[in-house]
């Protein structure tokens, strides 16, 4: 059983992994270097989305390399985190939300592995973008740990790296978004193309632009993540312990198909 973790801002999960070693995985999109080790007898690969020194901004993350690399390494289950702005009063700073759906407002990001030609033309179904079984495991683990966790949330992904305008946030509210961020798309889409069981824990770090009474800043996000980062890491590893016991079937691996070149 191999498990991947994609850590967003403020999540550096290595303290849980025994003897982590950086491993190079070559992909058609470049080399990725997850830290690989063991947790509770399972192999775990940790990949910090923004690089180990947090130097890669959201619009420059190599999403395809990350998902391809984890898939090639053998991950079947992938947990990810996403610091987010909240559009909903109930999702106050520090709250965790197990994402259930998304809206995509990114621009110019390649969000497929299938570029036509010999790779084929593929239109994946995203009726259930996130793995329903992993989502349930994360939510129940969060309840067990008595964390302020919500079982579903609709995430709107913006291109960044700037924060949104108040008008963009009002438009998103009309469309039903509950959280905003800059990284979950195309990651979730690529994970679905790769047939991974993928879940994202969004961490509310601030109320979104125009809702918050103060200007938004990355410092505010980091400040909230200082405490929330430990909670979410504990949540991920508590959830990982339950992956071995999964009996429920979901459609994440269907239809069976190999990524181009794999
Ligand atoms: N907007 C976009 N991304 C974010 C935010 C936000 O308000 N907070 C944390 N990441």
From TrEMBL:
One of its GO terms (biological process) is purine ribonucleoside salvage. This is Probable 6-oxopurine nucleoside phosphorylase. Substrate binds at residues 182, 206-208. It comes from Psychracetigena formicireducens. Purine nucleoside phosphorylase which is highly specific for 6-oxopurine nucleosides. Cleaves guanosine or inosine to respective bases and sugar-1-phosphate molecules. Involved in purine salvage. SUPFAM superfamilies: Purine and uridine phosphorylases. Pathway: Purine metabolism; purine nucleoside salvage. Keywords: Glycosyltransferase, Purine salvage, Transferase. The record marks 164, 218 as: Important for substrate specificity. The keyword Metal-binding does not apply. It catalyses: a purine D-ribonucleoside + phosphate = a purine nucleobase + alpha-D-ribose 1-phosphate. GO terms for cellular component: cytosol. NCBIfam families: PRK09136.1 (NF006599).
């Amino acid at each position: 059983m191999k498990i991947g973790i994609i850590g967003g801002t403020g999540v550096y999960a290595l303290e849980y992994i025994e003897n982590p070693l950086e491993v190079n995985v070559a992909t058609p999109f470049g080399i990725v270097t997850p830290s690989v080790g063991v947790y509770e007898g399972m192999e775990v690969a940790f990949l910090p989305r923004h690089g180990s020194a947090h130097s890669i901004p959201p619009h420059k993350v190599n999403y395809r390399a990350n998902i391809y690399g984890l898939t090639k390494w053998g991950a079947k289950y992938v947990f990810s985190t996403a610091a987010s702005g909240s559009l909903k009063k109930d999702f106050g700073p520090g709250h965790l939300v197990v994402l259930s759906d998304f809206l995509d407002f990114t621009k110019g990001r390649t969000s497929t592995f299938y570029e036509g030609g010999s790779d084929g033309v593929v239109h994946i179904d995203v009726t259930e973008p996130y793995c329903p079984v992993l989502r349930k495991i994360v939510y129940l683990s969060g309840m067990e740990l008595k964390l302020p966790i919500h079982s579903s949330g609709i995430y709107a992904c913006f291109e960044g790296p700037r924060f949104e305008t108040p008008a963009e946030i009002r438009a998103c509210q009309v469309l039903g978004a509950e959280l905003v961020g800059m990284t979950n798309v195309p990651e979730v889409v690529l994970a679905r193309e790769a047939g991974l069981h993928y879940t994202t824990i969004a961490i509310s770090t601030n109320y979104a632009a125009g809702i918050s009474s103060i200007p938004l800043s990355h410092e505010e996000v980091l400040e909230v993540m200082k405490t929330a980062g430990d909670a979410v890491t504990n949540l991920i590893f508590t959830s990982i312990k339950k992956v071995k016991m999964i009996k429920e079937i979901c459609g994440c691996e269907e239809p069976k198909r190999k990524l181009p070149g794999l």
